[in-house]
Fold these 3 entries.
Entry 1:
Amino acid sequence: MTQTLVAPLAETSAPPAVRVQRQTTSGIVAMALGVVALLVIASLPAWASQGMIRDAVELCCYIVVAQMWNLLAGYAGLVSVGPQAFLGIAAYAMFVMAQLWGINPFAAVVLAMVAPALLAVCAYGLLHRLDGPYFAIGTWVVAEVMRLATSIFDYVNAGAGISLRVMGGFSPAERNIGLSLLCALMLLVTIGGSYLLLRSRYGLALIAMRDNPVAAKSQGVNVGRLRFLIWVAAAVGTGLAGAIYFMAQLRVTPTAAYDPKWASIAIFIVMVGGLGSIEGVLIGALIYFFADRWFAQFGATYLVVLGLLTLFMALFARGGVWGLICKVVDAPWFPTRRVLLEDRR
């Protein structure tokens, strides 16, 4: 009789328990500093001079315009050279509502966001058929069409522009308080909203779409719809910055509102700071702001240096300044990665 030997089952150890880490110490510190920064901006009228408040408004607008461009180019793969189209139409919409229609100017800033949203929807119906450099040229054409149309539209005083005389009904202190609160709210909505978006499942889809749109689509990501939503959101964010910026200037003209320099500023900030990162936008905005204050007096030479610096970063340090920092220390300010850690509890 043949005896069958049954080998005992080898004892197998259970897989270690793991947990997902989404926040870091550096992220917590950065969040606390961000809250402090928002409070400082909101409290500017209590202690800052008029010039400092204007500088703070300008810096906040640079940050927002650059971050909206960063969402488009760094995640959605949509390189635009015409963000000034949305910036200008929102500014004009706010001026028309406040100066011509009699709406409270601070409320008009919010209501004016309908204009860039509608323009973005209409423009995307044409631009979504284009790709790469053709899409970029298309965005520039849209901005130029808006500039030319505004320049001949008598209702908004054509090329002469509009002055926001209605702001004379507010005291300087009231204007400063309103602008400071709007800037703090704008940063909270745009930068905070971008961070929450990138931490969500839509953020994962954006990153996948940025790395390989074809592979992302094969995994169920609706690339077309996601690009459209990011396009509209970026248009609204850019428009918000434009409305607040020109409210502080108290005057808007087609040349200023649709100035191509806004695209140049956004590209410089993102490319030098770091494409595809919120940290890079903040760093790049500070670099541009102080460079503009200290070296703008050199005129054309200053612009050439900025262009060469952008080209250098694009060729040799595509991660920008933030990418160079990350090679030395891994301490994200806005952590969006999901890290698996062994749970030793």
Entry 2:
Amino acid sequence: MRATKSDVGRVFHALGDPTRRAIVNRLSDGPCSVSELAQPLAISVTAVAQHLGVLESCGLAATRKQGRVRTCRIAPAGFLTLERWIGEHRARWEERLDRLGEVLDEEE
């Protein structure tokens, strides 16, 4: 399955913000609550929830509310989108570099 431009764009947009990258880095250590995410960032729980909304919309994070606590975790979908996009571009550039190598070999 090919990564669509809009999916890739949403993931890059989400990761373009340093606060969201910090949230993703924290969630890489394991699930935590929204208030735990807010504490080291020195921003409000509301602001963290807004950032989480962006991360959820592109598949980088998932949240679940249990009682009064919203628990967040990393989600794989956004990373799979990036992996596909990188793979598509890597193949294209490797092919171009191989052709360049052949041209350079011919000149020698």
Entry 3:
Amino acid sequence: MRAGTGAARLAMVEDNSARLFDRIGHFLAEHGLSPDPRHYAFAYRVCSDAAGPLAQAVASLTDGGIRLSSRDIEALGGEIGALSVAAPTENAVQKADGLVAQTQMQVDGFTDMMHAIRAETQDFGRDLAASADAIRESRDTVGVDEVVRLTGMMLGRVRNAENKLEEATHEATVLRAKLEEARDNARRDPLTDLPNRRAFEEAYAAQAASGARLCVAVCDVDHFKMVNDRFGHAVGDRVLKAIGEALIKACGGQMVARYGGEEFAVLFSGVDLQVARATLEEARGSVAAKRYRLRESDEPLGAVTFSAGLTEASCEEMLGTAFARADRLLYAAKHAGRNQVQTANS
């Protein structure tokens, strides 16, 4: 009996573990989170205590099909990494670091080469001076012949060094171009080709330091999870590209970035809140007016809309402060019915 009871308990534990694993996997997929250890740890805390305060807070934040954002998870005490779309960016950063190392090696090679040329030149100078002294003392052609020989040797060395320098210069030019490309890729979203979160943060810091008038908008696609669930992620990706293009078209001259998942951010510089809102409303109306169809079957996808929160930002405040304010306005727009822009002054 005891053996049977132990086996039954073991089976029950294994079944509960499998169910918990399935719930964690569903949670990660539902919120577009990659299964790295930090995401998994947060999902475990939520799924292992479905009635606990953390799970209830998550349920409240995601009511109505809203995905968790990285800021939500951080606010709930989770150490979160980037969303799954950030993996290519991390690879791009690693690639850039590798190219920086290659470039440093190239610079070191230049330095070693110049030291070698300097040493050979110094040796040539000493030998030439000695030959000149010999010419003055002997007054015959022996010293002249030696000078000619030394000069010929030095010219050969110089030509060899010039060839090496030319090759090294070409390699450095190629590396520089690759480095610039890698740096750009590290700041660009691979799906929409828009600047990413890192680029947005850097742009905000630069604009704030210049004293420019700033407004920050956070835009989120309405019911995006339903689009993915019903039509698949490939269609969802096309929707994200279309909204990114609409924002770029309406917000010409301003920075539009994909901040993560279905979330976009716009940095308005040199315009007031009214102009920024009118610009954002133009983009929102343009997106809402379109009627998308599936490329494969021509089946209507229906209306796609986005909600947005928009706020002025003072040059003295950190991006996180202004962004959190815009994010609260975004949630207000969601709860007020979606497909709208909510604004507030700093």
